[in-house]
Specification:
Blueprint: E1 4-8, H1 30-43, E2 47-50, H2 60-68, E3 75-81, H3 87-100, E4 105-110, H4 121-139, E5 144-147, E6 152-155, E7 170-173, H5 177-186, E8 189-192, H6 197-213, E9 219-228, H7 232-242, H8 248-256, H9 264-275, E10 281-283, E11 286-287, E12 300-303, H10 305-318, E13 320-326, H11 330-340
Helix pairs in contact: 1-11, 3-4, 4-5, 5-6
């Protein structure tokens, strides 16, 4: 079984030599993020995550349209936020981007609040559920007759379609009860942040059962940082250097900038850090120190190339079929992972998942 291996384009001002030390050359820009994507494609990565943030970085959708013309093979995993656009317009936007990229678009559905919005978790996920259902119908070429809490439509599908004529794969994550139910009913790929092998197995089992109750099958993805060096000692030293300039106050301020800083998933990342040993490792080769200076994905696989490959293969054995990897600085770590790790993985673009 092949796995999809993606890189991270750092559109959200999340690129550093050392966390908390701003380097103007690493701030998100068309030039810098475009170079990351070009590097990832040249090295053979299958997909690249284009993250979304309101207060940080550059716009993912606009960037995707531009970078589609600069790439030939790599897929584009574009983050799009529920509630940001009228759903029919979002469908046309996705179809247009897919056409521009020659059918290479995949979509990361985000369920966070918008700036200035006060919407509790259950309501946000009701909006997400309604959005994903309508979006899939429109992109599959079906009319939508919806009278929901957030989506009210009586509309034929747009004339423009994706290359395949179907909705692109929808990637989606979240640990809360409401998020799990949305994923089970509407997602193609359920994304997880770093966790212990035992906990990952539990989540996969739970979501597999939930999806089956809807007559569906989910695929599973894993978002994690990587610090790979020729030896384990060098990798550990590099990991420590990433956070060496970070104090607690700066780290807390960085984490608080995210719109999802109080989510169930973010709390779980904090729990992992609390459960880790003094050196930050919560289990073999899984280091939580990187989460001191960023919200969301808060752990890294740390080791030599063989150890990193073995850790990824351990996740694959649990049922993970898609990896979204990143590292600091993103272009440099992309090159290391692409040269030392990627050739040892049986990988390729994730096939469409039957709903």
């Amino acid at each position: 079984m092949t796995c999809e291996v993606s890189w991270f384009a750092a559109l959200c001002d999340d690129d550093y030599e050392q966390l908390g030390v701003v380097d103007p050359a690493l701030l998100s820009s068309w030039e810098h993020c475009g170079a990351i994507v070009t590097e990832a494609e040249a090295l053979g990565f299958d997909n690249v995550l284009l993250p979304s943030g309101y207060a940080l970085g550059i716009d993912a959708v606009t960037f995707a349209g531009g970078v589609a013309a600069r790439t030939d093979r790599i897929r584009l995993l574009v983050a799009m936020r529920c509630g940001e656009l009228w759903v029919p317009q979002l469908a046309r936007q996705i179809a247009t981007l897919d056409r521009m990229s020659g059918g290479r678009l995949t979509v990361n559905v985000i369920s966070s609040e918008m700036p200035g919005e006060a919407l509790d978790g259950p309501a946000r996920y009701r909006r997400t559920s309604e959005t994903m259902a309508a979006l899939r119908a429109l992109l599959d070429g079906s009319p939508v007759h919806a009278d929901g809490e957030f989506v009210r439509l009586d509309l034929e599908p747009p004339r423009i379609t994706t290359v395949s004529g179907r909705c692109p794969p929808l990637y989606f994550g979240g640990l809360s009860e409401e998020a799990r139910e949305v994923a089970a009913e509407h997602a193609d790929v359920y994304l997880m942040w770093p966790d212990t092998l035992d906990r990952i197995a539990e989540v996969i089992a739970d979501l597999t059962a939930r999806a089956a109750r809807h007559g569906r099958r989910l695929r599973f993805g894993y978002r994690v940082h990587v610090v790979v060096r020729p030896t384990e000692a060098e990798a550990r030293a590099a990991a420590e250097r990433i956070v060496a300039a970070l104090d607690d106050a700066t780290g807390a301020a960085i984490r608080a900038r995210s719109l999802d800083s109080a989510s169930t998933g973010v709390r779980r990342q904090a729990e992992l850090r609390g459960a880790a040993a003094d050196d930050g490792f919560v289990e073999e080769h899984l280091w939580t120190g990187i989460g001191r200076g960023r919200s969301g994905c808060g752990a890294a696989i740390v080791g030599d190339p063989d150890q990193v490959v073995a850790k990824l293969e351990a996740y694959r054995a649990l049922g993970i079929e898609a990896f979204i990897l990143s590292g600091y600085p993103h272009r440099d770590e992309c090159r290391r992972v692409g040269e030392w790790v990627l050739p040892h993985l049986d990988h390729g673009p994730l096939p469409a998942t039957p709903a």
